[in-house]
């Protein structure tokens, strides 16, 4: 489904080049739940950005269903990120002046995958699925951190993405809310989505079925 082929990433610095990623090869298939582990600064979030098309590799390729997404048309890449990928980050990105329901519906505005009625039905289902029923008309400012993250999770699932990218999704949550998000991610993998989660938390990584370890010594990058 999603494949990285000999992916390198480097940045030009005054007096030299900083190599962040070197020859990373990875295949993410339906139902996979990957945890990306490694020390700070090793390139975990950079790798995630490359996988979802928010950044480009310096060399190598990223392929979705066999097709490269590295140099495709910008409009097509935007469509893929909206419809095929879902995103859950440590800091829940949202529109403060929109209600919970309106925030969850945002991806449908830029997609023809669902009609307005279908999107509303899907949003209603997801609101119950993530456990924020009754909060549809609230503004984000009136939600707890856990409720905000679950709202963002529901939004990420609205268009039934093939791959869910989670970058430290539990980093700002307490234990109970962290476990809720991790359980939801596990549930999505069991239901046929692929999940790629960056985390520094080894307890969170235990929810994953596969581990990608990134090391400071680039030759030692590997999958376990």
Structural overview:
It is a single chain. The chain has 224 residues and is an alpha/beta fold. It has helices at residues 44-51, 74-83, 100-109, 116-130, 145-157, 175-190, 202-205, and strands at residues 2-13, 16-28, 33-37, 59-64, 67-68, 85-89, 163-167, 194-198, 210-213, 222-223. It has a 6-stranded mixed beta sheet with strand order 6-7-8-3-9-10, sandwiched between helices. Strands 2-1-4-5 form a 4-stranded antiparallel beta sheet, covered by helices on one side. The protein starts with a strand and ends with a strand.
Q: Mind summarizing the main beta sheet?
A: 6 strands, mixed
Number of strands: 10
Mean pLDDT: 92
Q: Percent range for helical residues?
A: 25-40%
Structural class: alpha/beta
For the biggest β-sheet, the strand order reads: 6-7-8-3-9-10
Put simply, the count of helices is 7
The run of helices and strands is EEEHEEHEHHHEHEHEE
Shape summary: globular
Q: How far is the first residue's CA from the last residue's CA? A: 19 Å
Strand content: 25-35%
Outline:
With 224 residues, the protein is an alpha/beta fold. It has helices at 44-51, 74-83, 100-109, 116-130, 145-157, 175-190, 202-205; strands at 2-13, 16-28, 33-37, 59-64, 67-68, 85-89, 163-167, 194-198, 210-213, 222-223.
Q: Descriptors for this entry?
A:
26% strand; 224 residues; globular; 6-stranded mixed beta sheet; disordered C terminus; 7 helices
Topology:
Layout: E1 2-13, E2 16-28, E3 33-37, H1 44-51, E4 59-64, E5 67-68, H2 74-83, E6 85-89, H3 100-109, H4 116-130, H5 145-157, E7 163-167, H6 175-190, E8 194-198, H7 202-205, E9 210-213, E10 222-223
Helix pairs in contact: 3-4, 3-5, 4-5
